[in-house]
């Protein structure tokens, strides 16, 4: 072997070892239901496709349903493409979230996507929230209208939980970025499971409980596919390396373009923010960036002034989106 060839071989070996020891996180990998999840409740209302890559959760008169990840994760990228129930869905809630409330009831951590059903003709609203170390008295709810109809096609919803930040994504657009340095002790710090559920929230979901679930329109079906569980399994000695890899992964890197897309989404679609809810929280939380031009669009209840006044350029205002601010 020539000196050059052996030098190249030595280099290649070093590179291979370096690659082998650095844990990687493939945020694009999807799994079959049985590879990553187990049914949680309402077993008869969980319908799995023949290839096991799509699962539908039903809510009917007898019960809702839900599934849970088979493992717990400390940090991760959790994602699913979801199609929400259509037609009259008042009182119906579809949730996609991480939590460890079963393991740490007093000091639990949680990251939420919650989809709140609506009366016919009015759009679903989406809520995101975070709890850390039992911060249940400090809800950090934000609500948004979606810039598409989430009942006609699948859209991807993702939660990135990295060491220093949580980012919620809708399709490939970041819609919320919570940094640990700002949220401090309320930032999730213990292993969590991933959950997906559909349930009857008649007392809360739609206009504060004004509209209850009407089972004449049931069963309500939420379908999940493109299931991704790119997480650092806990407990695991490689967790450090995995968390590093996750921090360097695409979803964790907030490029300028992503920050701009996030700002635009929030300007157009956010209809409630705990940061502007000075009735509930007279002193805003440390992670709240209070932008004066933005604050004037919200009432002191945290709800947005009527969306009808918004000028959204090329997109006509949707009739159903009006007056959402009061719900
Ligand atoms: C979490 O909460 C518990 C109980 O309130 C407290 O003792 C502990 O110091 C907290 N942990 C962190 C990391 O803040």
From TrEMBL:
Its PTM note reads: Contains at least one intrachain disulfide bond essential for its enzymatic activity.
* Subcellular location field: Secreted, Cell wall; Secreted, Extracellular space, Apoplast
Please name the top-level EC class of this enzyme: transferase
Indicate the segments forming the GH16 domain, all copies. 15-224
Q: What's this protein's name?
A: Xyloglucan endotransglucosylase/hydrolase
Offer one example of a GO biological process linked to this entry: xyloglucan metabolic process
The family database entries (InterPro entries) matched by this protein are listed as: Beta-glucanase-like, Beta-glucanase/XTH, ConA-like_dom_sf, XET_C, XTH
Q: Where is this region: Disordered?
A: 301-327
The UniProt regions of compositional bias labelled Low complexity, in chain numbering, are 318-327
Primary localization = secreted
Reported function: Catalyzes xyloglucan endohydrolysis (XEH) and/or endotransglycosylation (XET). Cleaves and religates xyloglucan polymers, an essential constituent of the primary cell wall, and thereby participates in cell wall construction of growing tissues.
Q: Which domain of life is it from?
A: Eukaryota
């Amino acid at each position: 072997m020539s000196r050059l060839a052996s030098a190249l071989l030595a280099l290649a070996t070093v590179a291979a070892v370096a690659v082998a020891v650095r844990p990687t996180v493939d945020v694009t990998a999807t799994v079959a239901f049985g590879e990553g999840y187990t049914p949680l409740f309402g077993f008869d209302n969980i319908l799995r496709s023949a290839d096991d890559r799509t699962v539908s959760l039903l809510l009917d008169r007898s019960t809702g349903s839900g599934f849970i990840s088979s493992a717990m994760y400390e940090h991760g990228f959790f994602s699913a493409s979801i199609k929400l129930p259509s037609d009259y869905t008042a009182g119906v809630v579809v949730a996609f979230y991480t939590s460890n409330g079963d393991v740490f009831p007093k000091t639990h951590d949680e990251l939420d996507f919650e989809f709140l059903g609506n009366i016919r003709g009015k759009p679903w609203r989406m809520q995101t929230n975070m709890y850390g170390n039992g911060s249940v008295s400090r809800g950090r709810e934000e609500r948004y209208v979606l810039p598409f109809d989430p009942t006609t096609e699948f859209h991807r919803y993702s939660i990135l939980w990295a060491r220093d930040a949580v980012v919620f994504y809708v399709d490939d657009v970041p819609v919320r970025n919570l940094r640990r340095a700002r949220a401090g002790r309320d930032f999730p710090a213990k292993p969590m499971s991933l959950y997906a559920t559909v349930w009857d929230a008649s007392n809360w979901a739609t206009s504060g409980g004004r509209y209850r679930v009407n089972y004449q329109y049931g069963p309500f079906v939420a379908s999940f596919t493109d299931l991704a569980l790119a997480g650092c399994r806990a407990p695991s000695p490689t967790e450090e390396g995995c968390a590093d890899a996750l921090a360097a992964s695409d979803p964790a890197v907030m490029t300028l373009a992503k920050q701009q897309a996030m700002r635009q989404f929030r300007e157009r679609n956010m209809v409630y923010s705990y940061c502007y809810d000075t009735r509930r929280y007279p002193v805003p939380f440390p992670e709240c960036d209070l932008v004066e031009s933005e604050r004037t669009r919200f009432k002191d209840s945290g709800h947005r002034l009527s969306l009808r006044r918004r000028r959204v350029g090329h997109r006509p205002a949707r009739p159903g989106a009006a007056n959402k601010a009061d719900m």
